[in-house]
Design goal:
It comes from Paramecium pentaurelia. One of its GO terms (cellular component) is nucleus. It holds the Pfam family Myb_DNA-bind_6. GO terms for molecular function: DNA-binding transcription factor activity, RNA polymerase II-specific; RNA polymerase II cis-regulatory region sequence-specific DNA binding. This is Myb-like DNA-binding domain containing protein. This protein is mainly α. Helix content is 54%, strand content 5%. It has a three-stranded antiparallel sheet. A hairpin with a 4-residue loop joins strand 1 and strand 2. Helix 9 packs across helix 10. The radius of gyration is 30 Å and the shape is elongated. The termini are far apart.
Length: 333
């Protein structure tokens, strides 16, 4: 669907007496505040089109074949609905649909006009699960943006998805970002959690607080750069903490970890208790290797001969295999 940005037009005295104005009550339309309608409807214009433009659309639609017929028909229909002060949910009775049909230069049944109007409504994605076609289209768009080094500009990605999708509802930039981050990103870690990963997760969580996106990046070096989603991190945190009772948590005193100000004393006690339990279950050497101090960089080798360096929310990988191969070849020479 094309979105036309039609400029507003100051009505003249001549326009107020125009025959089309008696049909649409153009003065009435121009006085309407569009803000509440823009929140609920997908308006095809930023400002009410001028009478001159509406007249042109009206006579174009009476012709046999015109370019952008559907878009122009929708613009005219939206102006009629505004003129009628149609309810925001666009649920009109039969008499009102008959009136719409009388005003439109093209003829459709009441059901057909009703179906067209459904395309104007913003609908919640939570009531409309993502389809397989939407997932494929979103993935194609994001990968295309990455190939062209456009980055993840979610507002542009959402706009392109809505323009190319056949759905009647709009996906917001936030919904596109969450769908990518929680479902479509090929780097998502879907493996079972290990005790060591649980331990490292809680250590980082204790120090950095509920910064889920940042924690996902910081945790990825120990899982071969496979990332846990923000949703899975939140769910895992609740599951781990819920297994600690108040009596166990009271026995923990003191810590060598820096603690985020996000936590209250009760939460700190539970986190420290669970960390202590996991430390007993895991190899102490591995624990010490991963220990993170907030004032230093976090450095770790993964299984692909790459050095992973994390500072803040940034991550850099250095391929050491090239260095090793060069060293070996020099020794052989």
């Amino acid at each position: 669907m094309s979105f036309l940005h039609i400029q507003s037009y100051q009505q003249s005295t001549e326009e107020s007496s125009h025959p089309l104005n008696s049909k649409l009550n153009f003065v009435n339309i121009q006085a309407i505040d569009l803000k509440p309608y823009k929140k609920k409807w997908r308006l095809l214009f930023n400002n009410v089109p001028s009478l001159k433009i509406l007249e042109s659309i009206y006579y174009d639609l009476q012709g046999q074949s015109i370019e952008d017929r559907e878009t122009k028909e929708m613009i005219f229909l939206q102006c009629i609905l505004l003129n009628m002060r149609a309810p925001l949910n666009l649920k009109l009775n039969e008499e009102q649909w008959i009136h719409v049909n009388e005003l439109m230069p093209t003829h459709k049944t009441s059901f057909e006009w009703s179906q067209m109007c459904q395309q104007f409504l913003h609908q919640s994605a939570y009531n409309n699960p993502w389809s397989e076609n939407e997932d494929k289209l979103l993935l194609d768009i994001i990968l295309s943006f990455q190939r062209m080094k456009k980055g993840n500009k979610w507002s542009k990605i959402a706009r392109e998805l809505n323009e190319r999708s056949l759905n009647k509802f709009i996906r917001t930039p936030k919904q596109c970002r969450e769908r990518w981050g929680n479902k479509l990103d090929p780097s998502i870690n879907r493996n079972e959690w290990t005790d060591l990963e649980d331990l490292n997760f809680l250590q980082l969580l204790l120090q950095h607080g509920r910064r889920w996106a940042e924690l996902s990046i910081r945790l990825s070096p120990i899982t071969n750069n496979k990332k846990r989603t923000e949703f899975s991190l939140k769910h895992r945190f609740k599951k781990l903490i819920s297994s600690i009772n108040s009596i166990e948590s009271r026995s923990i005193h003191g810590t060598r970890y820096a603690i985020s100000s996000d936590w209250n004393n009760k939460e700190i006690s539970k986190l420290l208790c669970k960390i202590s339990q996991l430390e007993m279950k895991t190899n102490q050497k591995e624990v010490e290797n991963f220990y993170y101090h907030p004032l230093t960089k976090q450095i770790k080798f993964n299984d692909f001969n790459k050095l992973v360096i994390i500072k803040g929310s940034s991550k850099v990988e250095l391929d050491l295999s090239i260095l090793f191969n060069q060293t070996n070849s020099q020794l052989n020479d």
